[in-house]
Structures are given as C-alpha cells and as structure tokens.
Amino acid sequence: MKDKVSLAACSGMSNFGLICRAVASDLSQSKENISSICITSTAADDKTPKIMEKYPIITLNGCFNDCVGKILKKKGIKIAKTIDIMDYANKHCLEPGEVARLGENGEKTVKKLKKHVLKEIRAIR
User: Which domain holds residue 26?
Assistant: First the structure.
C-alpha cells in the first residue's frame, strides 16, 4: 500500500456511524498514506476541494442509505470503493457499541474493522 488514499466516513447518528468515524480517524492517524475526509464539510461546501480529486476515495458507510456515496456523487467526486461497515459487522457478529460512546464492544469492533478496511485498500491497488 504505497499510494495515498482518502477515507470518507459516515457521520450519521447511528452506532455504526461512530464506528466508521473511529476507523477512519484511527487509520489516518496511524498510516501516513491514509487521510480522512470530513463528509459534513464536503456536503456543506459549495466547491469541491481539488485535494478530493488527488487520491482514490473509499467510502465507509454506517448503514444501507449510502449517504457518504450520495454526497460525493452529487459533487461529481469519483469513488474508488465503498465499504458497508454495518453489513460487514453484522455478517461477522461484531457489536457496534452505542451511538455516542464506543464502549468495550465498540472498540473491539473498530479494531477488527480497521484490519478489514486495510485489506480492502490493498485490494484496490
């Protein structure tokens, strides 16, 4: 995983939205080739920052609504990959924690999902 990618995480009010943000934040802080995108700022901004076109973007969705993807598509931003965090967690019996606090189960889920997201990033290379 040499080239940089950007993660655009859900910021919704579901427990999986919090999980998405934690995964994106942790990975962008621990890996120099991963950055995170504030999807709320992206939605609110009238112009798309040029940096959004610089690196492949991977969306981390907290539910089936694909809000992150819809926001980026409305802005004309290309998405390299979409990861449905809730679907993956449910298939692997991972517990999300609460809406505003990860708790012990949520932290365990974040740890496992970070490995999954890194694997998915490698797959697009």
Answer: 5-123
